[in-house]
């Protein structure tokens, strides 16, 4: 059995080696012709997908082409919808993060306001909310818990031009 397989292999190799240049040229010509035909078919199919040169098609071919185009459109729409859903989820996550940061900042502002009021009470005495001669920096922000409530921020420094220098703490 092995000798038969060896003789077959040798004969096959001899056949490939003896193939003439003209036979090889004919093989490549057939291959080139086949590739040209495939290219022509692909170009024709492409034109048909673009809606050009439809006159040679019968009803069955036109329905097949229509079904292919509808499936392609459906796939495109599904991809577009998925991208939009992903973007919406990303924007919702960013909005949620910004809302949390806004609440944290609001809480920090309230703490600063309370500390400012405590400092005023210490400086001006109990029951005094505001010193009439103080300079103020004001700002407004929207309360995130109650949208109708406007929070007013005030920073004030007392006018110390008339204080004497003995009240000013010294360093050293």
Automatic annotation (TrEMBL):
Source organism phylogeny: Eukaryota, Viridiplantae, Streptophyta, Embryophyta, Tracheophyta
Positions with biased composition (Basic and acidic residues): 1-17, 162-172
Any Gene Ontology CC annotation: nucleus
Region: Disordered, residue numbers: 1-20, 128-172
Name of the molecule in the record: K-box domain-containing protein
Transmembrane segments: none
Organism: Digitaria exilis
Keywords per UniProt: Coiled coil
Chain ranges of the K-box domain: 25-115
Molecular function GO terms recorded: DNA-binding transcription factor activity
Entries under InterPro entries matching the protein: TF_Kbox
Domain of life: Eukaryota
């Amino acid at each position: 059995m092995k000798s038969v397989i060896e003789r077959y292999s040798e004969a096959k190799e001899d056949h490939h080696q003896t193939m003439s240049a003209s036979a090889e040229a004919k093989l490549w010509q057939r291959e080139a012709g086949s590739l040209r035909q495939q290219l022509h078919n692909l170009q024709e199919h492409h034109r048909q997908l673009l809606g050009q040169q439809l006159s040679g098609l019968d009803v069955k071919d036109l329905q097949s082409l229509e079904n292919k185009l509808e499936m392609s459109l459906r796939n495109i729409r599904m991809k577009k919808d998925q991208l939009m859903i992903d973007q919406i989820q990303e924007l919702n996550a960013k909005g949620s993060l910004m809302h949390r940061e806004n609440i944290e900042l609001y809480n920090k502002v309230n703490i600063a306001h309370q500390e400012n009021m405590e400092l005023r009470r210490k400086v001006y005495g109990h029951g005094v909310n505001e010193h009439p001669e103080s300079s103020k920096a004001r700002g407004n922000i929207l309360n995130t818990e109650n949208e109708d409530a406007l929070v007013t921020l005030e920073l004030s420094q007392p006018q110390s031009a008339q204080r004497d220098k003995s009240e000013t703490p010294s360093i050293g």
